[in-house]
Amino acid sequence: MPDSPFSSLLSQHLPDLHSYEELYKHFHRNPEISTLETETSARITSELQKLNSQHNSPIEIKTNIGRTGLIGIHRNGAGPTILLRADIDGLPILEKTGLPYASSKRMMDTHLDNIEKPTMHACGHDFHITCMLGAIETLLACAHAWSGTLIYLFQPAEERGAGARMMLDDGLYTTHGCPEPDVCLGQHVFPFKAGHVYSCAGPTMSAADSYRITIYGRGGHGSMPHRCIDPVVIASHIVVRLQTLVSREVPPDETAVLTVGSLRAGETVNVIADEAVLQINIRSVSEYWRKVLLDGLKRTVNAECEAGRAVKEAKFEKLNEFPLCDNDEAVTRKVEESFTGYFGERHDPTMKPVLGSEDFGWLGSDIGKPYMFWFFGGFDPDEHDQRVKDGTTNEIPVNHSPFFAPVIQPTLKTGVEAMAVAALTFVGKK
Fold first, then answer.
1. Does pTM surpass 0.85?
2. Does the pLDDT of residue 430 top 80, yes or no?
3. Which DSSP string do the residues of 307-339 spell out, in sequence order?
């Protein structure tokens, strides 16, 4: 049976989550694209102000950090400083869940390409926001039982790998007066069994690097290829050759993925284009093999361009970058002890690394501080068990799917509890 010093505390002070269920539905109905989360940020600010009023709380709220980011600083006596983070942006995806609270929102992506796009919380950031707010109310209610400083950070633009960097570059720890944390903590809902928490030490989410690469040929009539330099042929050789970076240069016991997400060239059937554009995503779970793959990408592209007589060197444009999420061993083991004590068998500390990516780690690594990132399940427990029996877990809609629809409970309660327990691990009075 679970044995946790926090069980009694949370059972007494966990808020009624009905209002948070409704708040979650509000955020789900009203997602906003990365860097444009103005209404989301305003609603979070309003909720923090409401909690301050209800609990006579000293939380200091600072807004407009890195455009739409915000923090709440909760000073509660002497002790460590712990940062809790939730990301807040949605994705340009047309929702197909059929939920009564599904998003039908469209918005102009004025920060990227000025194109109107359908918008959906297809990665669970609506849960992250709501769980954080629920955890804050819990921590306010039991403030007598802990001592230290908690920073509640709501981060924009995670989906573009930009939000953490935007907040840092805007002076999060300097201009905006956020105390430097001793530890940073974050979590993510995933299509695992709802009610359960999952963790591991060391590399937890992959580094990711995305590029747009333009290959330059010489266009002309499809009947006269000898008078042209076909960039499609060069690009096709690049696509095939790149697959050998993982299969022949990275050891089989290392984890790496290289995906050519798109190859675009030409507009009609009888014309040889003068340019081909590839978009490439590379994921890795060690800095050494990350460098091998990035070096190999440039070497391969340049060599194939030379072999194909490209008219000039390929153009490399970096689209985004996510750091390796590398959980600190000591911090992770300490939190895992609390999770096992609180959740019992509903905590799995043997999770394998996930090849999705996060920019959360920069909030700690930029100032040389440790961090931990964990997962909580969002898929209906009974259906999950049945799918395990049937061998159909691969059919569960995953993050970024238009069908991604975590069940509200016990997902919400678990996320609130996990965030509160992790924070109390460091600031709770023993």
1. yes
2. no
3. HTT-SSPPEEEEEEEE--EEE-HHHHHHHHHHH
What radius of gyration, in Å, describes the C-alpha atoms of the chain?
A: 24
pLDDT reading at 1 higher than 60? no
pLDDT tens profile 392-408: 999 999 999 999 999 99
Verify cis geometry, omega within 30 degrees of 0, for the bond prior to 31. Answer: no
Question: How is the chain split into domains, by residue range?
Answer: 7-206+324-427, 207-322
* Superfamily of chain region 7-206+324-427: Zn peptidases (3.40.630.10)
Q: How far is CA 424 from CA 6, 81, 114, 332, 377, in A?
A: 8, 11, 44, 14, 21
Q: How many residues does the chain have?
A: 430
Residues 153, 176: Cα–Cα separation, whole Å: 12
Q: Please tell me the distance from the alpha carbon of residue 416 to that of residue 34, in angstroms, as a whole number.
A: 24
Residue 109 — φ and ψ, nearest 5°? -85, 75
Q: 207-322 adopts what CATH topology?
A: Alpha-Beta Plaits (3.30.70)
Of 418, 346, 332, residue with least CA distance to 2: 346
Measure the CA dihedral 119/31/414/61, to 10°. 150
DSSP count for the chain of H helices, then E strands: 11, 18
* Residue 56's pLDDT band (cuts 50, 70, 90): confident
Q: 10 Å Cβ neighbour count for 423?
A: 27
